[in-house]
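Reading a protein record of the kind used here takes only a little practice. Think of the row as the fold of the chain written in a discrete alphabet. With that in mind, consider the following protein and its fold in token form:
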Amino acid sequence: MTLAIFPSAKKSDAAGEQEKREILEGMRQTREDLRAARDSFNNAREPELVEAAVFQINALQSRYAYYLRVAKELQCETTASAAVRPSDPARHRQAAET
């Protein structure tokens, strides 16, 4: 009976849950893209390709930070387990070269 009185409340909850799922999926996809971009960075031999990989990694880290901020605002329950801080590719390159 409550649903008949407040139909928009249920709809709002469903929309909020859908938004949370989309944010978490965006985070997952961005983590995958970051792994691929780091692989490209690690395998790049030409300076232009290294630079392009760095730009790509920086853009993906910015996207991930956005998703993380929104997930915290929406209080997504799996944010803590999904929150993997993207690392700095330059550190990886220096470690590999030494």
Observations:
- DSSP finds five helices and no strands in the chain.
- The longest helix spans residues 7-43.
- The chain has one domain: 17-97.
